[in-house]
Specification:
Distance between the termini: 37 Å
CATH architecture of the largest domain: Alpha-Beta Barrel
Number of domains: 3
Radius of gyration: 24 Å
CATH class of the largest domain: Alpha Beta
Oligomer: single chain
CATH superfamily of the largest domain: Glycoside hydrolase/deacetylase
Strand content: 5-15%
Number of strands: 15
Helix content: 40-55%
Bound molecules: zinc ion
Length: 408
């Protein structure tokens, strides 16, 4: 939340400063060497790099990775491009988490150690998955268990499917109980799958709100629901659906808000005051709405899982200092955003910053580069900013690829 600019600015300034000092050292040292001076002289321009080292390597950060969908067939999700990765890519990342000195820990372990000052292993990292998609059971769970990586899955109550029977997953294929044709990828976790995940113990289920909604914040129209955009504007359907929303994607046409429905200026529901033709809700009404969502999550998820619900993940990272404090008042131990924070000992221990993890980081498929940049992302957020230099180069490359693609 509040740490985003600070952490990002420091990483950027240090990485650019270090790269600049290195470039100056190479040029000046090379010139001295070519000039025929004493052999030791050409090392002199590199001395600033030694002075920068304590700032470039500051262990103590904990990357909290944010995944959503892990799927071979994510096409049913209108936003699959940005939030889904293939099971093969997820497995490669888990393999890296179990090698190169990284130590996967649970979200609970991280929050407890920050609160109590308890020690963490070297190079800690936390895995989280948002939205509670069915593929978390089908593909992510068997892989997490295979690599013994703990994870937290954040579910939204209205999207939990009611069935009690777990559907086939990759474990069933390995055991010969199912074939690839038996796998279903579209949809959300059902009650039976959540119960099995809880029983197994490696994955914990935490709160991601009730409806993953947005609210309109003013009368200005910015879109209209139509045949080409109604899936992308799914929140408009969700808002018009009373209660359960998990089946919204199973129809060819919108089920609740028909074509022609006006879409007005909007924001994530929990952090903004709702506008209706009668006016904008008062601060008190907004707070009551937020507290109602937080309480419903704590109560209903606790009933479903049999465990205390400890963490709240803000849908679409819609969080402010005030919403965070209200969630803590309502009994959550910590809340999670997506602000790239490093979760250092000096940061607010009740707020967890997270970093998105996907694949094709460069904008095209190149497994070794993806693996290198994934490791670079982990090391950067663990506090080793040398790795921010290749990471920055990777981001610039991805941005360039995107601009090339969007050119007419
Ligand atoms: Zn979400």
């Amino acid at each position: 939340m509040q740490d985003r600019p600070r952490h990002r600015r420091r990483r950027l300034a240090l990485a650019l400063g270090w790269a600049g000092a290195l470039a100056v050292g190479v040029i000046a040292g090379g010139s001295l060497a070519l000039g025929g001076g004493h052999a030791a002289w050409w090392l002199l321009p590199f001395l600033p790099l030694l002075a920068l080292h304590p700032l470039m390597d500051r262990p103590g950060g904990v990357p909290v990775l944010m995944y959503h969908s892990v799927s071979s067939e994510p096409g049913w999700l209108p936003w699959a491009d940005t939030i889904s990765l293939r099971p093969e890519a997820f497995e490669r990342q888990l393999r890296i988490l179990r090698s190169r000195g990284h130590a996967p820990i649970s979200l609970g372990h991280l929050v407890e150690s920050r609160r109590t000052g308890g020690a963490l292993p070297a190079r800690p990292v936390v895995v989280t998955l948002d939205d509670g998609y069915l593929d978390n059971w089908v593909a992510a769970w068997p892989l997490l268990r295979r690599y013994r990586v703990p994870a937290t899955v954040f579910v939204s109550l209205d999207f939990i499917e009611p069935d009690e029977r777990p559907r086939p997953n990759l474990d069933d294929i390995d055991a010969g109980r199912a074939t690839a044709d038996d796998l279903r990828w579209a949809g959300y976790l059902n009650r039976g799958e959540i119960a099995r995940l809880v029983d197994e113990g490696l994955v914990d289920i935490q709160a991601h709100g009730t409806d993953h909604g947005r609210v309109e914040i003013g009368p200005e129209e910015c879109d209209v629901v139509g045949p080409t955009n109604w899936r992308r504007l799914a929140w408009v359907q969700w808002r018009a659906m009373e209660g359960a929303k998990w089946g919204w994607h199973r129809t060819d046409e919108p089920v609740a808000a028909p074509y022609g429905t006006a879409v007005r200026r909007n924001e994530p529901a929990l952090a903004a005051r709702r506008w209706t033709p009668r006016g904008v809700e008062t601060a008190r009404e907004w707070e009551e709405r937020l507290r109602g969502v937080l309480r419903r999550c704590r109560e209903e998820l606790a009933t479903l899982t049999g465990n205390t619900v400890r963490f709240f993940c803000w849908p679409e990272h819609g969080v402010t200092r005030q919403t965070h404090e209200i969630a803590i008042e309502e009994g959550f131990e910590a809340t999670c955003g997506g602000d790239l924070g490093e979760n250092r000992p000096g940061d607010d221990p009740t707020f967890v910053g997270r970093v998105h993890s996907g694949e094709r980081i460069l904008g095209f498929s190149m497994d070794w580069a993806d693996d290198l940049l994934f490791h670079a992302k982990l090391r950067t957020h663990q506090g080793c900013y040398y790795w921010f230099v290749p990471l920055l180069a990777g981001h610039l490359c991805a941005r360039w690829m995107r601009s090339r693609r969007s050119r007419p």
